[in-house]
Structures are given as C-alpha cells and as structure tokens.
Amino acid sequence: MHNRICSIPRMAALVPLFALVVFSLTAHAAPKRLASAKPANCASCHGKEAVLPAGHPSTAGMTLASCRECHAKGGASSLAGKLPLGHIHQLSGVTCVKCHGKTKKPQPVDMAQCVACHGDTDKLAEKTAGVKPQNPHKSPHYGTTLDCNNCHHQHEKAENFCLQCHKFDFVVP
Question: CA quadruple 124, 173, 67, 64: dihedral positive or negative?
C-alpha cells in the first residue's frame, strides 16, 4: 500500500513531462492547408479524404464560375453556407498568402483584411440592405462594426451569428 501512495507524486510529476513531449511533436507538424494549394485541387489540402459526393465530376481546373454552372447562387444546390470561405476564395483565385501573408504560422484574418478587399462595412451594409427580416451588416446591436469572423469562417462552414438570439433564416455564405 505504501508503494502505491509514493508512486502517485511520481506519476503527477511525469504528467507535465508527457504533455511537453506531445506538444513538441504536434507544434511542428505540417500545416493541413498548404500555401501552394491550387484551386479545385482538393487533395492538396484534404489528401486522399473523399470530400465530394460519389459521382461528382472531376474538379480539376474548376473555378468558382464553373462550380456555379451547376450550383447556381440562390438555387436549391447553391454552395452558399456549405463551403468554407477559404474554398470560395481559392476557387476565385485568392491565395492563402493574399490574406495571411508569407508566414509559416498563419494567423486568423482580421476584419481590416476583409474590408481591404470587400469594401468598408457601410458599403457591405448597402449591398445587403434588402435582406429580411434584418440586414446582417447593419445590426441594431452592433451597427456595422460586428467582426466578419463571427459569421464568415475561412476554413469552416459559415454560421449565422444572429441565431444565438433570433430566428432569422437567411443563409450566410
């Protein structure tokens, strides 16, 4: 019994060491998304993982315009809200470096970078003025200052930030 009690402090001392070893192995792992990824080259980021439904035509060389030939904006098979913005940017010819810069450790893109390409928030609010029941870019709570990343995720599916409190049904691209 005494040996078991004495081994508890030894085990507790090994936990931080184990965590340090695990962290050091993962901290320098290759990034999943490559700065050299080519538009419509799913394998450059996803590897051999099947990301398209069975029977989907080859995407080699496709652009956002060619995707929209089948997936019309606003149609039943629209890609809006289904593809992360990183995919849409890539298919539009925007590279990782354009938003993240040349770095080995890309950081999340801040709102200043979004408005540098998409225009200031007042202009975005004008473009979405007809969205009902509420213009998502001109909130009664946040005005035009709500951070783009609250809804528009670059590498994950977009979400409707307003749904935390409201029952709005608009689709966030």
Answer: positive
